[in-house]
Amino acid sequence: MSYISLYNEIIKMTDQTKLFKALSDRNRLRILKALQTKVLCVCEIKELLNLANSTVSQHLKILKQAGFIVESKDGKWVNYKINPHTNDPRINPILTSLDFWINDESLIINDKKKLKEIHRMNICNM
């Protein structure tokens, strides 16, 4: 095997590892399910998960690096949403599979109910 082939294999494995890392945490799965419901800012995700801003930001960074989510600036808000134009063909099937695997979990059901009550204008200190 040439060095170039070996390098390409290592890069491919690194990309796969990022996907699995992103999916290996319960809170990141909750974030993905929440973002399938609506676009959210850090404050809203913090409120949903009851975590520190820094922890939420770290989870979002991992999901973004894996290609699951994107962020966009809208005035004073940084909005997070599911990546609608991912270059990775594995992302959409994984997100669709989440509906099968965890959609009926009580935690996910409660998160969906709680999301209806969470509004950034009421919770974000900006």
Describe this structure in words.
It is a single chain. With 126 residues, this protein is mainly alpha-helical. The protein has one domain: Arc Repressor Mutant, subunit A (Orthogonal Bundle). Helix content is 64%, strand content 10%. The chain has helices spanning 3-23, 26-37, 42-49, 53-66, 91-102, 106-115, 120-123, and strands at residues 69-74, 77-82. A two-stranded antiparallel sheet has the order 1-2. The radius of gyration is 16 Å and the shape is globular.
Key structural traits:
64% helix; 126 residues; 2 strands; single chain; two-stranded antiparallel sheet; globular; mainly alpha
C-alpha Rg, in Å? 16 Å
First and last CA, distance:
55 Å
Q: Which structural class matches the secondary elements?
A: mainly alpha
Shape: globular
The main sheet orders its strands as 1-2
Order of helices and strands: HHHHEEHHH
| Count of individual helical segments | 7
Which fold name corresponds to the CATH topology? Arc Repressor Mutant, subunit A
The CATH class label is Mainly Alpha
Task: Label the CATH architecture.
Answer: Orthogonal Bundle
Major pleated sheet: 2 strands, antiparallel
Number of individual domains: 1
Give the beta-strand count.
2
Which runs of at least 5 residues are low in confidence (pLDDT < 50)?
none
Helix content: 55-70%
- How would you name the CATH homologous superfamily? Winged helix-like DNA-binding domain superfamily/Winged helix DNA-binding domain
**Mean pLDDT across residues:** 88
Strand content: 5-15%
